[in-house]
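Board work, copied verbatim: Lipoyl synthase
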Amino acid sequence: MIELPVISEESKKRKKPDWLRVKLPVGKEYAKVRKLVDEHKLHTICESGNCPNMGECWGAGTATFMILGNVCTRSCSFCAVATGRPPEYDTDEPRRVAEAIKLMGVKHAVLTSVNRDELKDRGAEIWYQTVVETKKLSPETTIETLIPDVKSNWDALYRMIDGGQEVVSHNMETVESLYRRVRPQAKYWRSLEQIKLTKEYGKRTKTGIMLGLGETKEEVFKAMDDLAEHGCDILTLGQYLQPTKMHIEVAEFIHPDLFDLYREEGLKRGLKYVESGPLVRSSYHAERHVNV
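↓ predict structure ↓
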């Protein structure tokens, strides 16, 4: 069982700063995407992850699809996705996702998934088939796949990234010192190795880190150096927001000026592109990351 910190009275009284306020999702395009997602019985990380940008992204007619169900085998202390033994393994899912992407007419699709540690191939075949089917129906659509930790099952990794996607992302989520609290079933250096092997396979590589969990600036800089050394091309940095009172609390709301500083430092340290801001999430402005 994960030991979560006690939520202090000070934290309970802490209000979100103005720069973290977002509009409620509305509009015709949002309604269109909402209808398609419901009709095709699709899971989106936009909903499962309580993403603050859902209104903006869905309003633009885009969404990040979550394959392999909506129950995760991991129990990360920051994540709003349900934890347990996944009840489903839908071999028809690749076709349904590909058809939905075609109906939406998206030019750039982002695919992600829960962890499926109970599967021998970590769900790699569904990953591969989803990309292949999407490319078959929408050959002009570019694809980013945000893949989970494969626990050093490199055969599974290579199958996941061999479908023809342009960008392969794997989120580090936090700095090394906080892994035990934030990602207790993951390992910092194993995730770096996964990014390195993905780069060596010939893919454009990407990762995301949440800020405001108690990390220091020096630890963020060290993570940037490690990522550059392991072949990461693109880094996203955003503010962690506590999804429920059962999750790890926010240690600090990072000022936009510091996010700007991190962007500059990341580029100085060898990363090709850094998306850095309070409301940035790993798939935010993902269409910009295809050709960097």
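The two ends are 41 Å apart (CA to CA).
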